[in-house]
Design a protein that fits this description.
The structure holds two protein chains of two kinds. By secondary structure, chain A is mostly helical. Chain A contains 16 helices and two strands. Chain B has two domains: 197 residues, D-Maltodextrin-Binding Protein, domain 2 (3-Layer(aba) Sandwich), CATH 3.40.190; 195 residues, D-Maltodextrin-Binding Protein, domain 2, CATH 3.40.190.10. Classes of the chains: A mainly alpha, B alpha/beta.
């Protein structure tokens, strides 16, 4: 075997120290680094400070409160914030589940050689380009119990049919119901101190539908990109081995899409933990805070009630929730580099 | 896998974007100084810049009446109308706070009276006292004492009231009441109301229309009930600490609140106050407890003949004032014009011209009300006869913190109807506000 000459670069450490190659990247990065340090981490720090301060009126007061975590104690004892945390978890879980399932289903269907494939791809992705405010307002009209889908159901004669079968009308109150389905507190006695009813607020379901409508197209696009990377050789090999179409999906394609699923969960997960605009436009706080989320709580406590410390504390809790999702992901990414 | 690599870079971008927006939210209070660039800086010209949230319909017309009255006396001064749209000043107050903390006040701005005036403007030191103007113009004698008390802090006055709305009015559909063989007199007691309500309930008609999508609507209903059950004096005491929130009378008022909510329109979470008034106009519901502005809505729907009015049950002796007025800023760019503006808006002529357009009554009890319609004359008479009290739903009774706590507790009560918890929350809100 003949030696293959490996091209090597002569590097002398002494020479490199003065070369512009080392110096210029740092110089170029410095401004943006400085801006990020001030405008991201600096303000996170300031928010933390406000969250343990006595600033709770229009006049600024940055003295530290006593006890230091008194504001957080107050925050977690507020019924409304307990409800907000419950709503965030319910919304995040239902929404991620729906977005992944719908996105994957659409991607698998569009991955076939269907007619007008690129048209459908764009149709499903299009809602992603809309503002959450637009989505929120449109879906608020659709889910208005008097003028929305209930009217459609009535006019289509579905209620007439149901009545004929001896069943009651299908006319849910959608966004205006204060009903909470289930109560975890009744099953788990150690949750007694929590004043919020730990169940699924039914008014949240229309919001989940609207969010899924908007963002499942994004999940679909991600899955389509992932499907494009799965080699046809693998499918063919499986077919040669006699695997059914269902098995190919269950045991080969979906497991290979795992990294995509994780990316989707993380991207959509942090969107849903921080959601504000969609819910604010669609239902606001809702009856009995059925659709209230920490984002709305922060806005109202800070700018309406001028309780800056409470608003800042709730912001920090939101930051921590998002960190739980983002930090392990970033750590993994850094390891891969 | 190239796709994953590309995707992960994409997600990093998203993260950087998210971080940026989080920082923006976090810095919002500090951004005020830069936001003032949005308003044109008045140079040394002879101007008067007036800040308000009166941008539409009757409100804008009323403001124009005030401008006309000012121009008639000082024709050389150019008036700059710095109005910001948004219901009840929700957006305007944020914009104004931005300008004030940036040290760029307008020459005068619109404010409610009471706690909002105190905690947003007087205490942070944005307004000058105008006690001298009160003396030179003799205003203390023409505004009701109860009103002057609510804009006086440490013996100094800080606001010139222009127009007043009554917040405790029960509007009803005359036809619905007559059709069911019922009767509403000049005054209505709580017991009479509940009897009527029960009769309507049997007939399958919602007695009370509520629009709880407006967060102020239910708290306003509750404060009217409190006023009716406690009387003006004890009701006022709730806000200055002389009446305790754990009083048995408050418990009874909460129970009454619950009774009134028993026969309310089912769709109240999806309606705003005007939607609730529409139900009364259309005859779907019989009553709605709202302020003067609902009368303006009835007029715009040409329902003057259908709609009757009476003070909210049991509150004939009280007048819940929702008032607008103007202030004198610290460091006004044109202080002489600003003082002249306050003199203008405090004059009987300007107030008499302003009120009909705005649908309010003049804050001066000596303004000419002879040209007012029947409803406005009734409201004006109530203003000079009844005890003027504060409204929490409209920011006058309690600090913004306290008000928010009461709003939140009321939102919960609307669905859980738990009297004891509601009262506990109200007591806590009071203690929390007193703790500063």
């Amino acid at each position: 075997m003949a030696d293959i000459p490996i091209p090597t670069v002569e590097t002398s450490p002494k020479h490199q120290r003065f070369s512009s190659e080392r110096f210029i990247p740092k110089l170029l990065l410095a401004p943006s680094l400085l801006l990020i340090v001030i405008f991201v981490y600096g303000f996170i720090g300031t928010t933390m400070w406000v969250s343990i301060s006595n600033w709770r009126s229009a006049s600024r007061d940055l003295s530290i409160s006593d006890p230091v975590l008194g504001v957080y104690d107050r925050l977690f004892n507020t019924t409304r914030f307990q409800i907000d945390l419950r709503n965030t978890f319910v919304f995040t879980i239902l929404f991620l589940l729906a977005a992944v399932v719908v996105g994957l289903a659409l991607a698998l269907l569009l991955d076939q050689r269907v007619f007008g494939r690129s048209v459908f791809r764009n149709v499903f992705l299009f809602p992603y380009a809309l503002s959450f405010i637009v989505t929120g307002v449109s879906w608020r009209w659709l889910f208005n119990p008097e003028t929305g889908i209930n009217l459609l159901v009535e006019n289509l004669g579905i209620n007439w049919l149901l009545n004929a079968l001896g069943l009651p009308d299908f006319s849910p109150a959608w966004l205006t119901t204060a009903e909470v389905w289930g109560d975890l507190g009744a099953w788990l006695p150690f949750l007694d101190g929590i004043k919020a009813q730990l169940g699924i607020p039914l008014a949240m379901i229309p919001v989940v539908i609207a969010a899924t409508w908007q963002l499942s197209g994004f999940a679909m696009a991600m899955y389509l990109a992932g499907l494009g990377t799965i080699s046809h050789d693998i499918r063919e090999a499986a077919q040669v081995d006699g695997a059914s179409g269902w098995r190919i999906y269950r045991d080969i394609i979906i497991p290979l899409l795992r990294p995509i699923t994780i990316s989707i969960l993380i991207i959509l997960g942090h969107v849903s933990l921080k959601i504000f605009d969609l819910i604010f436009a669609m239902s606001g706080s809702g009856p009995g805070f059925a659709t209230d989320v920490p984002g709305i709580f922060v806005y109202e406590q800070t700018f309406r009630a001028t309780r800056y410390n409470l608003g800042a504390a709730a912001s920090i809790v939101m930051l921590l929730l998002v960190s739980i999702v983002i930090v392990p992901y970033l750590a993994r990414q850094l390891k891969e580099l | 896998m190239t796709a994953t690599r590309r995707i992960s870079r994409f997600s990093l971008n998203r993260r950087a974007f998210a971080g940026g927006s989080a920082a923006l939210v976090a810095t919002a209070p500090w951004l005020r100084a830069s936001a003032q660039d949005a308003t044109p800086a008045g140079d040394a010209e002879d101007q008067l810049e007036i800040f308000s949230w009166w941008t539409t319909g009757g409100e804008a017309a009323g403001l124009q009446q005030l401008f006309d009255a000012f121009s008639a006396q000082w024709p050389d001064v150019e008036i700059v109308n710095a109005a910001v749209a948004g219901g009840a000043g929700s957006n305007a107050q944020v914009a104004l706070q931005t300008r004030l903390s940036g040290g760029e006040p307008p020459d005068s701005w619109q404010s409610h009276h009471g706690a909002e005036l105190w905690s947003l403007y007087v205490e942070p030191g944005y307004t000058e006292p105008i006690t001298a103007l009160y003396e030179s113009e003799g205003w203390a004698d023409v505004f009701p004492q109860g009103l002057v008390d609510q804009l006086t802090f440490d013996g100094e006055q800080y606001l010139v009231p222009v127009g007043v709305h009554r917040g405790n009015v029960m509007f009803y559909n005359r036809q619905v009441i007559a059709d069911n063989g019922l009767e509403v007199g000049d005054e209505l007691t709580v017991d009479q109301y509940l009897e009527i309500s029960a009769a309507l309930g049997e007939a399958g008609i919602a007695s009370l229309a509520l629009g709880s999508q407006d967060t102020f609507a239910a708290p306003q209903l509750f404060e009217n009930i409190l006023l009716g059950h406690l009387g003006p004096e004890a009701y006022g005491g709730l806000w200055d600490g002389s009446t305790a929130w754990d009083d048995a009378l408050v418990t009874e008022a909460i129970e009454q609140f619950g009774q009134m909510l028993d026969n309310v329109n089912d769709n109240h979470p999806s309606l705003t106050w005007d939607g609730a008034m529409d139900l009364v106009i259309d005859g779907t519901a019989a009553f709605t407890s709202m302020g003067d502005w609902a009368w303006g809505h009835a007029v715009s729907r040409e329902a003057q003949d259908t709609i009757g009015w009476v003070a909210h049950p049991g509150t004939a002796a009280g007048f819940v004032a929702v008032m607008d007025g103007f202030t004198l800023p610290v460091g006004a760019p044109h202080p002489v014009n600003a003082e002249n503006w306050l003199k203008t808006v405090g004059s009987a002529e300007a107030q008499a011209a302003f009120a009909p357009d705005k649908g309010a009554i003049p804050a001066r009890t000596d303004a000419d009300t002879s040209t007012f319609n029947e409803y406005m004359q009734w409201a004006a008479a109530g203003f000079s006869e009844a005890a003027v009290t504060v409204s929490n739903a409209h920011g006058a009774a309690a600090s913004p913190q306290w008000r928010q706590s009461i709003f939140d507790a009321t939102t919960l009560f609307l669905t859980d109807r738990d009297v004891a918890t509601y009262q506990e929350e109200l007591v806590f809100a009071d203690e929390d506000a007193a703790a500063g």
